[in-house]
Structure formats: C-alpha cells, structure tokens
Amino acid sequence: MPDSVRTTCPYCGVGCGVIATRHDDGRVSVAGDPDHPANFGRLCSKGSALADTLVDAERLLHPEIGGERADWGAALDLVAAKFSQAIAEHGPDSVAFYVSGQILTEDYYVANKLMKGFIGSANIDTNSRLCMASSVAGHRRAFGADTVPGTYEDLEQADLVVLVGSNLAWCHPVLFQRLEAARAARPGLRVVVVDPRRTATAAVADLHLALRPDTDVALFNGLLAHLAEVGKLDRTYLARHTSGVEAALAAAGPADLRAAARETGLAPSDIALFYRWVAETPRTVTVYSQGVNQSVTGTDKVNAILNVHLASGRIGRPGCGPFSVTGQPNAMGGREVGGLANMLAAHMALENPDHRKLVRDFWQSPRIAERPGLKAVEMFQAVRGGRIRAIWIMATNPVDSLPDADAVRAGLEACEFVVVSDVTRRTDTVPCAHVLLPAAAWGEKDGTVTNSERRISRQRAFRAPAGEARPDWWALAEVARRMGHADAFDYRAPVDIFREHAALSAAGNGGRRDFDIGAHAGIAAQDYETLAPFQWPQPAGAKEGRARFFGDGSFYTGDGRAVLVPVAYVPPRTNPRRYPLVLNTGRIRDQWHMMTRTGLSPRLFTHLAEPFCEIHPRDAATAGLEDADLAVVESPHGRALLRVLVSERAQQGSVFAPMHWSGQFSSTGRIDAVVAPETDPISGQPGSKFTPVSVRRFAARWYGFAVMSARPASVGTDYWALAPADGGVRLECAGADDVDLVALAGRLSGCDPAAGLSYLDTASGDLRMAWFEGERLLAAFFFSRGPVAVSRSWASGLLASGALAERERFSLLAGRPGGAARDIGAIVCSCRGIGVNQIAAAARGGAVSVAAIGEALEAGTQCGSCRSEIGAILARLEQEEADHAPIAEAV
Ligand SMILES: Nc1nc2c(c(=O)[nH]1)N[C@H]1C(S)=C(S)[C@@H](COP(=O)(O)OP(=O)(O)OC[C@H]3O[C@@H](n4cnc5c(=O)[nH]c(N)nc54)[C@H](O)[C@@H]3O)O[C@H]1N2
Ligand SMILES: Nc1nc2c(c(=O)[nH]1)N[C@H]1C(S)=C(S)[C@@H](COP(=O)(O)OP(=O)(O)OC[C@H]3O[C@@H](n4cnc5c(=O)[nH]c(N)nc54)[C@H](O)[C@@H]3O)O[C@H]1N2
Ligand code: SF4
Ligand SMILES: [Mo]
Description:
This protein folds into six domains: about 5-55, Phosphorylase Kinase, domain 1; about 65-130 and about 330-505, Rossmann fold (3-Layer(aba) Sandwich); about 130-325, Dimethylsulfoxide Reductase, domain 2; about 580-695, Barwin-like endoglucanases (Beta Barrel); about 700-815, no CATH class; about 825-885, Orthogonal Bundle (Arc Repressor Mutant, subunit A). It has 29 helices and 34 strands. Strand 6, helix 3 (about 105-120) and strand 7 form a beta-alpha-beta unit. Helix 3 runs parallel beside helix 20 (about 470-480) and helix 3 (about 105-120) packs across helix 21 (about 495-505).
C-alpha cells in the first residue's frame, strides 16, 4: 500500500478530504487534503484526532453467536436461516434492517436491494430518520424530489446567511470556517442565527434570534407575509415556475410583527431587523439543520423556509438558496440509494408503480416492496410488540439514539433475533445482539460517500482490517447468497456495486429524475481507485458534475413547477404544571454521537468530560440548583442524572443536554431515555429537541473526582462519568448515601488503601488520596461534601507526566498545583491543548484579539472550532479586568 492515501473524514456531512499517511514505525497521521473541494486542507478537532481512533483495543475482532466466538460461515448461515424462517412463517414484513448514514453508499445499496427487491418488504429504515427525514419530506413536497439545490460556495458568495437550528461552528466546523473566512474577506456578509440557545455559532452572529422552541414556522410565515407586504415577492418567478403561492400566503396570515413576537418570544425590533435584512438582500442563503428537522412540525418548518426562497425566486443561483446541511458522512448517499422505508432506489418513489417496475426489472428481482415500510420509531415499537421477529442493526446505536430509549432496549431484549454489525464491542446496543458481526472500520474499507453539497468522494482503505472484520456490503451479500439470491449479489468489490448503482440512476431517466450519475455507469476498477470528488448530477456524457439545481426554474413535480406548501403555525404542546421545562438536546464540539470513536481520544475530552445540562440562572434558582450540582432530569419516559451548568446561554424555560453520553461512559447520561417518542406526522422524524421535563437537585452526600492509570471494571456509584486521559482515565462520581470512601477509592483504583498517601480535612470533610509506583502516579482521588473544586486539567496532566517530584506528589494532597507548576485551567483549544488560564495570561500580556492569541499560543489556529470561545473569554476578561475579579475556569 502507498504511504499516503487520499480518503474522506468519517464524521460530519461536510465531507472533508483527508490524507492518511503511514509512517515507517506503523504510526498513521492524518492531515486535511488541500485539493479536496469541501475543505481545501482544513480539518476540525474531530477530524484531526482521527489517528487517535485507529486502535484495536475495543474493536470487535470476530463474529459472535450468543456471546461466543464463531466463524463467519456459521454466523452468516444463522442470520440467513433466521431471516428466511421468519419470512416463511410470518411474511416479509416480519423482518427489518435498521441501518445508518455512517455506512458507505455501496453497503447501503446492497442492504436496500436485499430488503426491497428480494425480501420484498420496505422495512429498511435508517438513523437518517432521526436526522434528515423532515428535509427529505419538505424537499419532496416543494420540489417533487429530494434535491439539495446549492453548494458550499453559496455560503461564501451570499450577503446574508441565516442559520436556523444549526450550531454550525461545532457541528459543521469546516464549513463554518469557510463562512468565517468569507466574512473576514467581505465584512458586509451578515450572519443571523435562529436558535433558542446562545451557541458558539450564535455568539459570533450579527443577530441572534433566540426564539422559543418550535416556533420557527411562526417566524418564517411572518417573513413570507412581510415580503409580500413590502413588495419583495418575485411575481414573475412565482407565475412561471411555482404553484400554491396564494394558499401559502393565506396560511401565513397577515404581516403582523406583534403576533410573530408573541409566538416566538422575540423582541419585535429584532424580528423587524431580520425581516428587513432578508427583504433587502437577494443573495440570502438559509442553512438549516436539526433545530428544524427534529421537530413534530419539522416538515412544516422546512417548507416554511422553502416558501420564502421560492416566493422571492432566491434559489438555484450563486449566493442564494435554502441549504439543508446533512449530519452524517453519508446521509446523502443513503438517500440516493433509497435507504429510507418510504423511498425506492436512486431517488425513485416507492408509491410510483412505474418506478417500482423499473427498479424490479433492473434488479431482475422476484418481487419489489409495494408499500412503505416502518419508520424508525414505529419499527422499534413493532420490535417491542413482537411484530418484527428478526432485525439487523448496522452502524447505529438505537439503544442510545432513538427517543424513549429504555423502551427501545426492552424491545430488543425481548426480540427473537437481533443481529448487530459494528466496529466496536463497547456500545449499549451490542449486549442486545444474538449475532455480532465485526465490521471493517474507517481506513479499512473502500467505497463512496456523498456530502451535504451532493459531492461524491471516495473513502479508501489504508490499513488491513482488524482481526476478522469485513466490510458491511460483503456481509449483506453473503447473507443474500445464503437466502438464495447468489446471482443478484455476486459482487467481488465495491466498484461492482458502484457501477450498478450508477447504472440504475441513469435507467429510464433522461432528465426526469434529479439523481443521475450515469457518467460512471461503466467505470473501470482503476478509475474507481482514482475517482476524484464530483458533484451529482453527472449524466452519461457529462464531463463534470453540476453545482446547482433549479436555476432554469424547472422542478421534478408533475407539472414541473415548485410547490409552495401552505403551512399553518401550531403552537407547541407543553405541560407546565408537571413538566415546567423543555428539554433540548444536541451536540458538543469535540464528540461524535455515542463516542464509540471520539471516545478513544483523550484530547477530545479535555473540552467537556461529563454529561451536563445547561440551565438558565433563573430556572436554576427556582429548582434550587447551583453550578456543578447534579440534577435529575425527568419526563414520563425516563430520567437522566447530569452535571448542572448554570448559564445565560440557555433560554429561560429550556434546558439543554448533549446526546453523546451512553452507558459506556456514564451511569445515567443516556438522554434519549428521557426524550419523548413524538414524531412529525409527515416525515416520521422524532422531535428530539422538545420534551417537557422536570429538573430537580440530586441530593448527593458526597462528590468525587479521580484520575487513575486504568479503567475500573465497573464503577457502580449513583452518578459516574468516565473519560480517557493521557496515561489512564478520569472519573467523576457522586452518591446519595454515605459510603466508605477509602474503600471505594481502593476498589476503583485496585490499590491497597493502606499503601497510599491520604489527607482528611476534618473541618470541610475533604478527603484526598494518592497512590504511586515509585515516583509515578497510579491514582489520585478527591472527595468532598460539595462538588469537587480541583483543576481537572492539572490532575489529569500528572497521570501522564511520569516521575513526579516530591513537591508535586504532595501537591495532590493539597488539591492544587504547588510551586512552579502552573494550572493551565480548563482546556479551550483541544487541538493544541491550551487552557483558559494560558489564554488569560497571554491576554494580560497584550494579546487581546483572537488572532493575537493564535500567534502567541497557537490556540485556535488548527481547526478553529474554539475561536468563538476564545473571543468570549477575551470579552469576559475585559469585563473582569474592570471588576478586578479573577477569571474562573471556562465552562
Ligand atoms: N461535533 C459534532 N458534530 C456533528 C455531530 C456530532 O455528533 N458531533 N453529528 C453530526 C450529525 S449526525 C448531525 S445531524 C449534525 C447536527 O448539527 P446541528 O443541527 O447543528 O446540531 P444540534 O446540536 O443537534 O442542533 C442544532 C441546534 O438546534 C437548536 N434548536 C433546538 N430547538 C430548536 C428550535 O425549535 N428552533 C431552532 N431554530 N433551533 C432549535 C439547538 O439549540 C441546537 O443548537 O451534526 C453533525 N456534526
Ligand atoms: N436526543 C437526541 N437524540 C438524537 C439526536 C439528537 O440531536 N438528540 N440526533 C439524532 C441524529 S441526527 C443521529 S444521526 C443519530 C446518531 O446516533 P447513532 O446512529 O446511534 O450514532 P453512533 O453512535 O455514531 O452509531 C454509529 C455506530 O456505528 C459504528 N460504526 C462505525 N463505522 C462503522 C462501519 O463502517 N460499519 C458498521 N457496521 N458500524 C460502524 C460505530 O462504532 C457506532 O457504534 O442520533 C439521533 N438521536
Ligand atoms: S468538519 Fe470536521 S468532522 Fe466534519 S468532515 Fe470536516 S474534519 Fe470531519
Ligand atoms: Mo444526524
């Protein structure tokens, strides 16, 4: 294998090009690919830590049946037999596949073909149901196809970028960097953020509209009405290329700022400013993400946004258009192969008999699914009800990521036959499996992915699969073969599948369907190897892909006109007496979903290392909560125990919790156990951002923080959260009952309680213990009656420091750095490991801008994801300089 391989980042939908280089000592390093048109060499914190995840430690290395090692042949035979048996006894709709936007297009294509064409059911759905389904449904209602019209350059060429329900700075960091670079070059480019929370993205916006949760339709209906009132509708465009404008305007109601302000909770002046900016800016791009999609009114939110763009003719031209950014690396690829239960392959429609015939003829399949299958939430309800008797879960963790997650787990535990394909055994879904199939991971498998701007890029292997891991497409094809479909699944390599997928996209197309990559239908294996990133569509004969759709005003509806869908605003349902707050959930900067991969990188935990809930100071006061307390967040579905972060970033009435903490990293951080399984009636997407909850203080008798050189086999305290650290792990814990803390520390660290150093402050009750092997730290524990006030970065740093001077060893018992040792404070820039205290010191030394901090410390110079936080620290410092107050640890 060559030393350097061009591939694509396996995390977010920006789809950055990555160069992986193997060094002589076997080490792999990664860098951004300067030639990739998504990132031009940039990477974010997660992308640049990819090499840390290439460890075999927790990998699933061979198949297992019933918890015992098995060989591939036996495992595949069993899967085929169990699926065949269920189908024979209970029909094709008694089995299901639940797949993921994190498998490659080739894997996805095979899964969809097997289920829809050969098993004959449409019971294949994907975690994209939790992610993009409302956008898909909205696009199809408006455009007649699931088409993303624009391209990343539009954000750079726009004069106004409106980010709705998108924390772009943390979730699509490289695209955000491109936007920031464009703003720096052209200060006239304005950014508006529509998000109930003051996110890192909102913090740098020209205008932040912190609307009440789920009131977006009121805001955008109001905008449509405003554009009509001030004469900014493009009447020519509307007449030529659209239908439905009158109905949409009627549904939006009269222009009424005060009504919009009442529904959204925003100041009328802020709404007026926003409306004015949109009205006067033809080059407007509206980027939207999960604050829009993950809602019981998600599809209507999408169409309210699309209506504004269609009504003003701002679509399909440079620098303007609606832009749904995708979350997962291959969310788009999954949509292209028809991985959703209500879609057919190649953007064809399951409900269209001509399409069904076309696909069936193309596949030469014995049957074709005739009606939509079960959507994710319904699918797992059917598992629970015993209607699904065999399910194959691939590259997703429904036990953590679906709403009402405890019920999902109970369903899987009761299911007759569960197959899980994953790369790791450390997930909460793995224990539910009867058969475990080890999948080849990023860097070990070949195929293609499509990013948010419809750009198809290659993922390429640069290392041998761990153990007996095999690519997902192979496992699927082997099962298909064993179910009697050998000829149709006779693929030898991913290129065979890609060729077929490309050919199907072109079959009977002739411009009638948006997705057409016919130019690649005959691609040679060698050309697939070197395939450069391209945007679809690229029909047969086209030299290159196309950047934009709809510039010509023709759409994929029956009459070729776009549809403005009338959407009525419906206020969200709450239950203020029992559940006074609304739980909002989402992402943090340095973690990816359930942390199965980012969780392997100590540096990605330096920013935030615990499951938390962000709550407004007034709500905290009402609930009797203080910063760093623990809180029970509860809904009728379940509860979570989380660290409290009191912050004005939260809107009053809302609490925010990250989605990332699974049972692998915490006792009770699984937030989806709390989230309600309410879905959008059109898209079936859950409203993961809106669950009425109660929040109360958890009465802990003791709190602990520890660093240890090895992960304990189990923790078992009421609250705990583990995170890797250089040289070991760090642990937060707490309990409601008094326990023997010395014995607890001994059990967790595996050290003899009598052999360590310890210090008990009888007045405060603080207890500190440390164990050493020679001069090297083995474990240190800090217990306190209240939340433990010890610098986490300092204590964790000592684990990896090797021999400690006597003074440093004793400083552990004092609970703070002694002598010359400096506490760098909480890490802000995880790429360079720069803490808040270092930033503060540099600022006092004269580095008072984000750029100057970058020059002085290199903080914020690699991925740039922390730049808005550095800015916030500088602003706070300036304020505090005035007050002569010391600066606290960030976050
Ligand atoms: N670091 C990181 N990046 C990721 C991922 C990750 O796990 N970690 N996952 C990837 C995936 S799969 C996805 S889907 C994307 C998601 O990317 P985003 O959608 O940007 O991320 P989220 O944090 O889920 O939610 C975005 C925002 O929606 C806001 N919101 C909540 N309710 C409402 C509302 O009613 N209206 C509006 N307007 N906003 C609301 C939330 O406050 C939140 O800030 O991120 C991708 N990128
Ligand atoms: N409350 C709440 N819940 C949410 C969300 C939210 O915002 N709030 N967001 C939702 C969204 S948008 C999404 S996308 C989902 C994400 O949630 P999940 O889909 O559950 O996310 P992951 O934990 O990334 O699961 C991917 C799994 O695939 C494994 N894997 C990685 N590569 C491969 C491979 O090549 N083959 C196989 N077979 N396995 C592989 C990983 O180890 C991991 O276990 O969560 C959803 N749930
Ligand atoms: S922005 Fe970050 S996570 Fe997303 S593709 Fe690029 S490097 Fe990967
Ligand atoms: Mo997602």
